[in-house]
Amino acid sequence: MSRRLASQVRVDISTGKGETSGSPKRAFPHRVPALAEFLDASFVIDSFSMTESRVSYTLDSTLESVDNAEQTATRIAMEAGFTEEEVMQISMAVREAAVNAVLHGNAYDPDKKVKLDIETTGRELVITIRDQGKGLDPAKIPDPLAPENLLKTSGRGIFLIRSFMDEVQIHPSLTGTEIKLVKHVPGSSGGR
């Protein structure tokens, strides 16, 4: 089992100041500052060890936040050892899910936020995106391959996400929708 370096790390990117709580207290791992350069928000690392990490971001309902989410997922996927093609797939899946959260879930409402959690374990990369919208009924998502939908310019996001990721779970509720994206780490016994 890996040793836990800090129970919690908080960083305010706008000021660059951070704090740790828990024991043993250490300087930030080398990867954390690299992630910070992509985000214009505060983030919390709930736990970090040499083989596992979890970062959480609260993002505004803007297209800039979509870009930040995609760039962060790209960096973490590269660090986890995914191939160039897999990194592209993960990036596109995160982008599509973040666009859905900002556009369809929160409807660009500045009072609503998007929560992004990215966790790496020795076996998988797990990305969870939550919006604060009215919720989504996955059964009502039109099939983009149906003849009447083939020429539409939108409506393929969930289809692409499911194509690119190893597992996709959609959890709708009255307070928003959560989508969980899982990609197995190369060389793990996660089933790839």
Please explain how this structure is put together.
The chain has helices at residues 31-36, 63-80, 84-105, 157-164, and strands at 8-12, 17-21, 42-48, 53-60, 113-120, 124-130, 167-173, 176-184. By secondary structure, the chain is of the alpha+beta class. The protein has a single domain (14-184), classed as 2-Layer Sandwich (Heat Shock Protein 90), CATH 3.30.565. Strands 2-1-3-4-5-6-8-7 form an eight-stranded antiparallel β-sheet, covered by helices on one side. A hairpin with a 4-residue loop joins strand 1 and strand 2. The radius of gyration is 17 Å and the shape is globular. The protein starts with 7 loop residues before the first strand and ends in an 8-residue tail after the last strand. The model is unreliable at 1-51 (pLDDT under 50).
- Tally of structural domains: 1
The biggest beta sheet reads: 8 strands, antiparallel
For the biggest β-sheet, the strand order reads 2-1-3-4-5-6-8-7
Task: Output the CATH homologous superfamily.
Answer: Histidine kinase-like ATPase, C-terminal domain
Helix content: 25-40%
Mean pLDDT: 77
CATH architecture tag? 2-Layer Sandwich
Binned strand content: 25-35%
Secondary structure category: alpha+beta
> So what's the CATH class?
Alpha Beta
In sequence order, what are the helices and strands, one letter per element? EEHEEHHEEHEE
- The CATH topology assignment is Heat Shock Protein 90
What would you report as the Rg, rounded to the nearest angstrom?
Answer: 17 Å
Strand segment tally: 8
Low-confidence stretches: 1-51
Q: Please, how many helices?
A: 4
Mass-distribution shape: globular
Alpha-carbon distance between the two ends = 23 Å
